[in-house]
From TrEMBL:
Protein name, UniProt field: YciI family protein
Protein family according to the UniProt entry: Belongs to the YciI family.
Top-rank lineage group of the source organism: Bacteria
Domain YCII-related: 1-106
Length: 113
């Protein structure tokens, strides 16, 4: 099962407090175990735009797609047997202490498991 793990930043937490070496070590460990398939950090929210089409009109607005003080800072794609395993893995990610990790299973394509 593939799981998208969104790394959700919390502006109330100083990003300077994040132990980048601990993050890198978690990534290395998960990759070595075959769990982490891909991980990417996203550019800051002030470089994002949101696109909506309403009544045939295209509306482009600055910023992230959510109406929230939190934003998606990056993502990991995990390969795990089930969601419960993904939760156990996410608990060990240092970034869970600095924001949130949203776990969302992918839809299977064309009805295949």
């Amino acid at each position: 099962m593939e799981i998208m793990m969104f790394v959700v930043a919390d502006p109330d937490v100083d990003p300077g407090e994040v132990d980048q070496e601990a993050v890198a070590e978690w990534d290395r460990t998960m990759a070595e175990q075959g769990v982490l398939k891909r991980a990417m950090r996203l550019r800051p929210v002030d470089e994002a735009v949101t696109v909506r089409v309403r009544g045939g009109e295209t509306i482009v607005t600055d910023g992230p797609f959510t109406e929230s003080k939190e934003w998606i800072a990056g993502y990991d794609v995990l390969e795990v047997p089930d969601l419960e395993t993904a939760v156990e893995i996410a608990k060990g990610d240092v970034l869970a202490r600095h924001g949130a990790l949203e776990l969302r299973p992918f839809w299977t394509l064309y009805g295949k498991d």
